[in-house]
Amino acid sequence: MTRNRPTKSAGRQFQAPKVNLKIETVKRIIIFSLAALILGTAQCSFFPILDICPRTPDLIMGLILATALCDNAKTAMALSVGAGFFIDAIGGGAFALSPMLYFIYAIIISAASQKVLNSFPAFILLMLPSLIFRAASTVLLTLLYNGAISGGIISTLLLEALCTFILCLPIYPIMALATKPLSAHTKFKF
Predict the structure, then answer these.
(1) pTM, full prediction
(2) Where are the domains of the chain?
(3) Cα 16 from chain centroid?
C-alpha cells in the first residue's frame, strides 16, 4: 500500500488569514462590551426587582449617547445593535425589537452629537431628544404587546423619563474616563 505524498508544487498548507486588529480597536471592544454588559444586566435584572424606581430606566440609551459623544458614530451604532441583542437575550420581550430601536436611536443621536462639543452639558442637552425617543418607543411597544394604550400612560412615561434621566447622569463621566486611554477622538480641530 503506497501513500500519495504531495509534491512540492501542490504541498502548500492552509494558513489562517491574519487578523489585523489594531490595539485601539481591541480596547474599544473591551471597554464598550464591559459597559454594555454591566449596564444591560443592571437594566434587565437589577432595577426591576428594586423599589428605587417605579419604572425600569433605560441605561443602554445613556450608554449609546455617551459613546456617540466620547467616541464616534460607528462605535455608537455597533454598540447599539450588540447591546440591543444582549438586552433581548437576557430580558427582552416577544418581539425582540431592541436592536432595531437602539440602532435607529444611535443614528439620530449620532447625527445630533456631531453638532455639539463633547461635554457633560451636551450630554444633558441631548438627553431630552433621547427621552422623547424612549417615550415614543415605549408607546410603540405598549401598542404591540397590549393592542391598546391605558389611561395612565402619561404618568408612566414621565416616571420612566425621570428615572432614566437621573440614572443616566453618571454614565457620561464614567465613559469619558474609560475612553481616555483610547486615541483622541476630536470632533473639532482648533
Answers:
(1) 0.82
(2) 27-178
(3) 32
